[in-house]
Fold this protein.
Amino acid sequence: MGAILETRGLRREFGALVAVDDVDLSIEEATLHSIIGPNGAGKTTLFNLISGTLAPTRGKVFYKGEDITGHPIHQTIHKGIGRSFQITNIFPNLTVLENVRLAVQATGKDSFRMLAPHLRFSDYLDRATEVLARVGLADRALQIAGTLPHGDQRKLELGMILAPDPDVLMLDEPTAGMAAEQVPQLMELIQEIQAAGGRTVVLVEHNMSVVMTVSDRITVMHQGGVLAEGTPAEISADRQVQTAYLGALYGDVVRGGGR
Ligand SMILES: Nc1ncnc2c1ncn2[C@@H]1O[C@H](COP(=O)(O)OP(=O)(O)OP(=O)(O)O)[C@@H](O)[C@H]1O
Ligand SMILES: [Mg+2]
């Protein structure tokens, strides 16, 4: 196994602000790799640079060894990188099933799209139904998405990312705004999805107990740069991380922020 996703010297400036500061990141295939750091550390910007939502000032992004720097998001999705956004991103007036069906149809991977001319509407519906079962929303299929409880909306979002069968899922605070008692269920689902398909998950998450439980590796970002990288045990024990801000992360200091 090797790196499925890599950045080299990846940098993004906004005027005088260096949001992502020469980041070298290596994500091993079939792992759950978390990116943590306080508000404004550059986590979402890093996601934007990798997924092609934003162009880097300089530096490179490699996916399965291929240079995908600056490829627009529709291309990275077709290659197999699925990403969520920090805010819920569904079509609220459509049914749950329609949301997933559109995601299947609009953003299939290249392998899936080559089949597209031969696929019928019912094939898309079948795939969407399969995905809904996977994320535990089968019995909500015909409900208007906007009327789902928040926790189920986040599951739907996960379904929409999963629809084109990505190899990498980049999840930006998937549990944000969820009631505490719903968090373990969603995290279990994310772990199952990762393990079952041999998929790779890159997770941005503020909840430290979640991060320490589910991650294979953790990268700590601070002021745009990488402060530390290692296993959960290594990160918990890292003096520099502790003194820099881990104590603050356990408190309420970083709660509720974000774009
Ligand atoms: N489009 C933009 N224009 C200008 N500055 C930006 C833009 N996007 C992000 N920034 C700035 O870049 C820095 C990193 O922001 P980013 O959203 O990547 O942080 P984050 O780690 O995701 O934080 P949070 O935990 O709050 O989501 C912040 O100082 C932010 O204000
Ligand atoms: Mg963010």
Q: What stands out?
A: The two ends are 34 Å apart (CA to CA).
